Amino acid sequence: MDKMKMQTKNIADENYEKLAKLFPNAVTETIDENGQVVRAIDKDVLMQEINTTVVDDKDQRYQFTWPDKNKSIIMANSPINKTLRPCREESVDFDNTENLYIEGDNLEVLKLLRETYLGQIKMIYIDPPYNTGNDFVYEDDFKQTTENYMDSSGQYDEEGNRLVKNLDSNGRFHTDWLNMIYPRLKISKDLLTDDGVIFISIDDHEQENLKKCCDEVFGMNNFIAQVVWERAFSPVNLMKHFSPSHDYILCYAKNIEEAFCNGIARSDETNSRYANPDNDPRGVWSSSDISVGPPVLENIYPITTPSGRVVEPPAGRSWRLSQKAFYERLQDNRIWFGADGNGVPRIKRFLSELRKTGVTPMTIWKHTEVDHSQGATQKLAKLFDGKKYFDYPKSVPLIERCLQLYTDENCFVLDFFSGSATTAHAVMKLNAEDGGNRKFIMVQLPEKTDEKSEAFKAGYKNICEIGKERIRRASKKIAEENPDAKFDGGFRVLKCDSSNMKDVFYYPDEYNEPLFSSLVNNIKDDRTPEDLLFQTMLDLGILLSSKIEETTIAGKRVFTVNKSDDFDSNADLIACFDDNVTDEVITEIAKKQPTYFVMRDSSMADDSVATNFEQIFSTYSPITTRKVL
Beta strand pairing status for 223-230 and 364-365? Predict the structure, then answer.
């Protein structure tokens, strides 16, 4: 049996191993500043292998940098010893839903999700702090102790997650914001599918820096668009110079060659441009010019219309089709000469054959199309019986448009600055409208509400409580408005916490008899079997929305994850964390032939069970991977 690590991977170690496999002759060792022998890469050998220049820090070159950038990269790659604990009492339809609502520092949560959801997320939308000088930002530990953090922080939750107001008088004003956003973007790229995209809302304060960050993380060639959203429609006369009426939404692809835009849903007006005047059995079509400029010499040739008139391309242009390609389309009735057969030829384009089912979007999104900030605020207040609990939420139609453009009907959508959970609302609404099965993953730090606010007075102690209640109410409203629609209106609540495993690292002089007794059980006393199950799922890369069934075998509680519908076996995972597990339990589980079986190291009833364990699985399910906590 293998011992589970129960912590996230060190991405820097993985990157080093990849480089070492590519160029083993560049691997060497050196002495660090502490006199310790450490691994290293020989720069000179690497330069020879890749036949290019390796830039030193002192060399001039085009780059985007800021203080602590190197540390932010290290932070993105470094492992953490955390877990996600399920919270059934705050969830909705926990056993059946595929949606997730995760509470915790989003950098830690992204690291926990990285292996399980690697390459799984089709679309990410985030609305990070705009850095206006009054926004709270996540203060990641670059230079201070935990105690100093707590002293300097204006906000932190019960688990010690920090939020700090980034005042524009701060000498590290842009640095602190960049240190916050950069590692989160790096991890988000890993989560995207090859054809996935990310949308990021921002205003003028950090738009330039955000675009440079995205150019570096995703690649300049993967930039899709910078959308301008008309978030306000009337001027604020108190403004000294200009009254801002827009925000930006940056859109990047993980791989622009793979990404596909569905387009904006066609309106009746758009479809009215298609007709079928010649009763073509392929359906309605529109026609387009077949001339193009500048001219291609071999594509300049005369065409005789059905009426007998001879036409040639206009001056300075040629036909866009070769003569051979033109006559192939003519034979297939794809060339239109007008109702009288005397017009300049045009190519027929059938609505039924368009890969893109929608209209190509423009980069200016008007409030008449996707609503505005004031409208979003009013609609959210109406959802909460007229109470305004959240400032400046994004509009549901705005996020719904992003979803329509780049998601399919069965995919994962992630928002790791969830706020009021507009993204979850938009996902459910679109699913109800088009019958889709998009799954949302919301991540939000439980930032405390101001004690003077209406939200706090109404009983909402943090933003997560508002977000979860918004999803509950939105689900109910969508169901009432779409009584025949089937959509997933539930969500599993998971909370980021310290590892379920005890810290067993002590100095020799700290060991005593009471300590030895406490180490008999390596699981923390306040952790439940379901806590252990979800950390196991994270460690094994099993989706956190997976179907979980609980049964009893010989009096022991057994969890089965993703059991096959056709067989009472072949589940992704079977786990039992009870004490005194006997041969009978092990045998029954082995007969079900799961991909993984996990139990606690201390769970076996006696030495006989430990001795027989491997033999039982070798007999009934040799393919099962066995692991212990």
Answer: parallel
Stretch 229-241: mean pLDDT, rounded? 89
**Tens digits of residue pLDDT in 135-188:** 555 555 544 333 443 333 334 444 444 556 666 655 577 788 899 999 999 999
Q: Which two tokens stand for residue 325?
A: 């390609």
- Nearest 5°: phi and psi at 288? -140, 155
Q: 3-state DSSP call for residue 566? A: coil
Residue 19 has pLDDT above 90, yes or no: no
- Classify residue 144 by its DSSP letter: -
Q: Residue 193, SS3?
A: strand
When pLDDT is averaged across residues 602-621 and rounded to a whole number, the result is 87
Q: Per the structure block, which two tokens stand in for 190? A: 């890993």
Question: What pLDDT is recorded for position 229?
Answer: 96
Residue 31 binned pLDDT confidence (cut-offs 50, 70, 90) = confident
Q: Determine the pLDDT at residue 540.
A: 93
pLDDT at 136: 55
In terms of Cβ atoms closer than 10 Å to its own Cβ (0-12, 13-18, 19+), residue 620 is middle
Give the span between the Cα atoms of 258 and 255, in whole angstroms: 5
Cβ proximity of 586 and 618 under 8 Å: no
Buried b (16+ CB within 10 A) or exposed e, 411-420: bbbbbbbbbb
Q: DSSP readout, 27-52?
A: EEEEE-TTS-EEEEE-HHHHHHHHTS
Between CA 124 and CA 252 the distance in angstroms is: 10
CA angle at 230 for the pair 226 and 235, rounded to the nearest 5°: 135
Residue type, 220: M
d(CA 558, CA 597): 10
> Which residues, 6 or more positions from 135, have their beta carbon under 8 angstroms from its beta carbon?
129, 165, 166
- pLDDT for 26 beyond 90: no
Concatenating the DSSP letter of every residue in 425-436 gives HHHHHHHHHH--
DSSP code, position 214 = H
Among 316, 315, 314, 311, smallest CA distance to 294 is for 316
229 forms bridges with which residues in the sheet? 247, 365
Contact 224, 216 (CB under 8 A): no
**How far apart (Å, rounded) are the C-alpha atoms in residues 95 and 316?**
67
Q: What angle do CA 220, 222, 228 make, to 5 degrees?
A: 90
Task: Give the DSSP letter string of 533-565.
Answer: HHHHHHHHT--TT--EEEEEETTEEEEEES--S
Of 595, 589, 579, nearest to 613 by C-alpha is 589
Buried-state track 336-360, b at ≥16 Cβ within 10 A, e below 16: bbeeeeebbbbbbeebeeeeeebee
Three-state secondary-structure class, residue 472: helix
Q: What is the pLDDT of residues 524-560, one digit of tens each?
A: 989 999 999 999 999 999 999 999 999 999 999 999 9
Q: How far is CA 606 from CA 444, 530, 609, in A?
A: 44, 24, 6
3-class secondary-structure state, position 199? strand
- Tokens found for residue 353: 């054959």
Is this structure's pTM higher than 0.70?
A: yes
Strand intervals (E) in 203-245: 223-230
Residues constituting the chain: 629
